[in-house]
Amino acid sequence: MSDPILATYRIRADAAEAASIARFIAYEQTVELPEALVDDPFLLEHVVGHVLAVEVADDGCFHVRIAFEASLASGQLAQLINLVYGNVSMYPGIRLQALALPPSVLEAFRGPGFGIQGLRDLTGVHGRPLLSTAVKPRGLPVARLAALAADFARGGGDIVKDDQNLVDPDFASFRARVGAIAEAVARVNAATGGRTLYFPHLSARHADLHRYAAFVREAWLRGVLLCPHVLGFDTAREIAQAHGLVHMAHPALSGAMTQAGDNGIEFGLAMGTLLRLAGADISVFVTPGGRFRFSEAQAMRLAQACTEPLGALAPAFPCPAGGMDITKIPHLCGRYGRDAVFLVGGALQAHDPYFARATTAYREAIERCIVGARPT
Predict the structure, then answer these.
(1) Other CB atoms closer than 10 Å to residue 260's CB: what's the count?
(2) pLDDT category of residue 1 using cuts at 50, 70 and 90
(3) What is the span of the domain harbouring residue 216?
């Protein structure tokens, strides 16, 4: 087996069970037969996973490393995920901890269509983190949502996205709402010389997704907000790639995958590596210290997975969000450096009754933290 897929699992088990569980994973994920029933030499060499190591971890669990034939991924993202964690995700105490992919697998994926450099080129912002916000809540009149987006552009914000709950009942409603917001942002950009981007939330019946995405491009918009854990990783990848759109990935439903204790997929792997394979240019996640319980270690691992070398795939922006206020900007700049998007929602609206002024205050706070930031 040359250049295999290397998967590392964390197993919570007794020492007497660890080796047998490792073999169970190797067989269950490939031939889905008991070990005693597989004696074909070809299957044993080229299909069944090879257990490379079973080692005691610091927390008393075991780390198991298994090699899978690269061809078993079939050049498909869904099959890659199924191969390394499909059936065993239902077995208690097995968590996918790390994944090393050979060139033959990585070459099947284009990755982020824009990445960090592409988004900097679109926004004209270099040398500092980007500032983003969400237009919300659902239920506001379209004119009010458009005014919020326009004020964000007027204040010098970089990316304004729909809230993930902004979902329209039909295509006509989507056209009317997105068209109004896009026009409002475009008017401000034309008046100020700004380059604020507006990303609508793309959510529709599967058969209609391409129609919605095509309208986004017709409206001269450059990107969309997608929920890959809801839509499916490969569906999100295909929609953004087919229409040449920036893919801003929202973490809705991701907790079922990443926060499952002794099961699930390691946070950085799920929200960084796999989303880059799914073409995400921006990975939104909830920042530690906000209204969700996530650790600094998880956040740092995600940021690393978004930007570390991954074949020829472009790096993506990590995007901390959720309960951030202006007092946390220095800490965020210190943790994530220049290559991040700071997504500020309710705290931005609460900062100042005049949304444009609040946006300017946040952007200036970011600029003060980044020494030598180039003018935007």
Answers:
(1) 12
(2) confident
(3) 115-369
Joined tokens for residue 268: 């950085």
Number of Cβ within 10 Å of residue 179's Cβ equals 17
Dihedral Cα 15, 17, 19, 21, nearest 10 deg: -140
Q: Which amino acid is at 170?
A: D
pLDDT score recorded for residue 260: 85
Q: How many residues does the chain have?
A: 376
Q: Find where tokens 């990755």 sit.
A: 111
- Residue 43 sits in the same domain as residue 126: no
Mean pLDDT of 301-310: 96
Distance CA 361, CA 329 (A): 11
Asked whether the bond before 137 is cis by omega within 30 degrees of 0, the reply is yes
Q: Confidence class of residue 298 from pLDDT cuts 50, 70 and 90?
A: confident
- Is residue 374 scored above 60 in pLDDT? no
Per-residue pLDDT band at 217 (split at 50, 70, 90): very high
pLDDT at residue 372 tops 70: no
| Beta bridge pairs of residue 319 | 284
What pTM did the predictor assign?
A: 0.95
CA 223/CA 159 separation, integer angstroms: 10
Residues 204 and 63 in one domain: no
Write the CB contacts of 251 (distance below 8 Å, at least 6 apart in sequence). 229, 271, 283, 284, 285, 286
Query: Are 200 and 92 part of one and the same domain?
Result: no
> Is residue 267 predicted with pLDDT exceeding 80?
yes
Query: How many Å from the N-terminal Cα to the C-terminal Cα in the chain?
Result: 51
Which whole-number Å values give the CA distances from 141 to 173, 180, 225, 352, in the listed order?
12, 11, 20, 21
Place of tokens 């073999």: 23
- DSSP, collapsed to helix, strand or coil, labels residue 33 as coil
Rounded CA-CA distance 317/3 in Å is 29
Confidence at residue 375, expressed as pLDDT on a 0 to 100 scale: 43
Contact predicate 167/201, CB 8 Å: yes
Please report whether residue 375 resides in a domain: no
Rg for the chain, CA atoms, rounded: 22
Q: 2: buried, middle or exposed (CB in 10 Å: 19+, 13-18, 0-12)?
A: exposed
* pLDDT, average across residues 136-144: 95
